TrEMBL record:
Species name: Skermanella cutis
Keyword Glycoprotein: no
Compartments reported by the entry: Cell membrane
Membrane topology category: Multi-pass membrane protein
Shown chain mapped onto the complete sequence: 281 to 579 of 579
The ABC transporter domain, residue ranges: 54-288
GO molecular function: ATP binding
UniProt protein name: ABC transporter ATP-binding protein
Amino acid sequence: INVFYQPLERIAAVIENYPKGIAGFRRYQEFLTTEPEIIDRPGAVAAPAFKGAVAFEGVRFGYDPARPVLDGVSLSVRAGETVAFVGPSGAGKTTLLSLLPRFYEVDQGRITIDGHDIRDLTLASLRQQIGIVQQDVFLFAGTLRDNIAYGRLDATEDEILEAAHRARLDGLLADCPDGLDTVVGERGVKLSGGQKQRVAIARIFLKNPPILILDEATSALDTETERAIQASLQELARGRTSLIIAHRLATIRDADRIVVINGGGIAAEGAHESLIRAGGLYQRLHEAQDLALPNRTTA
Ligand code: ATP
C-alpha cells in the first residue's frame, strides 16, 4: 500500500469503527467523545470467514442499563437470509442492529455469528465482515476512487470499476471527465444524495462482506434514482445475510422474513401475507403506511 494511504486508512478505520450507527447511525461525533470505548477482550480471536448465521439470544440492552430499550430479544437468522425489520419510530430497530458490529455491548444475553459469541472476536475481524449502508452517507474529500476503495484499500482498478458498475455509477463516471479520479466533496463535484448512496453501495460490493446491515432511506429520491438504488441494493443483498431496517413496501415484500419490533422486543415475525392475515400491529402499520418511518411529519 502506498504510504499516502496510511493517514487515510487510519481515518477510514475510525469511521469504519464508529459509523453513525451508534446513535441511530446519527451521532458518531458525539459518540467519539461520550461513549465508553468498546475494546477487544483479552484473548479475543480473529473471526474466521463467516457464513453469516446470526443469532440474538435473550438480548437485553439500554443506553441507560436501568432503562432497557430491548429486553429478551431472541432471533435466529440463517446465513444468506434477508430479514426486514419494521416497527414504530423509536422501537429500537437501529439499536438492535447496532449491537451486531458491537457499537454497543449487550447488557444481558448474547449475540453469535456462526455460533461464535461476537465478544470473543476481535472488533476489526468482526466489523470487516459486516457492511453497513446508512441513510446519511459520509464521503470524505478525495476522489471517487478513494471513496469507493475505502471498502478495501488493496483493490485493483478493475475491481473498483466493477463495484462502481454494480452500484450503477457508470452514468456518473461517464459524466465526470476525470472518471474515478474526480474529486468529490467540498472542493470537488457535489454529489446528490442518491449518488452518494451509490458510492456507499459500491464500497460494500468491493468489500464483499457476508453480512449486510441496511438502514433504508426514508427520504424521497426521484423515481428513477430510487429504482436504480433499489435494484443495486437487491443485488447487494443477494448471497449475504441481510438485515434491513425497511421503509419500503417492496423491500418488505421481497424479504424472506419480516420482524416487527415493538415494546422492547419482537412483537411478531413471519412472511408478509401471514402477518397481514394475523392482523395486529403489522397490519395496522401497513394500513397506516407507517411501517418504520422515523419521523411522520417529514415522511
Ligand atoms: P426510528 O425508526 O425512528 O429510527 P428505531 O426503531 O430505529 O427508530 P432506535 O433509534 O433504535 O429506534 O431508538 C430506540 C430508543 O433508544 C429510542 O427511545 C431512542 O430515543 C433511544 N436512543 C437511540 N439512540 C440513543 C442514544 N445514543 N442514547 C440514548 N438513547 C438513544
